Amino acid sequence: REIIPLLAANCGLKPDSVVADVGCGTGISSRMFLENGNRVIGVEPNAAMREAAISQLAEYWRLSIVDGTSAETTLPDASVDLVTA
Length: 85
Prior knowledge:
Helices cover 32% and strands 20% of the residues. It is built from 3 helices and 4 strands, in the order H-E-H-E-H-E-E. The longest helix is centred in the middle third of the chain and has 10 residues, at 47-56.
């Protein structure tokens, strides 16, 4: 959680920033951005991990999960403010 203030100070992260969490797995990193108020797009190639993230983060309406990889995220150009991996 300590990374949030660092990203705010050095990368311009704000609560209304859109974050792409590439390789989001079960959503551990995604959760801290969601708790910061960010919209998060989780990119995960593994179906079981995607399902776990969807299940564990179901309470967050700002989350969407897509089937993709770091090379093929499926996200449009310039559609996010911050990318984590």
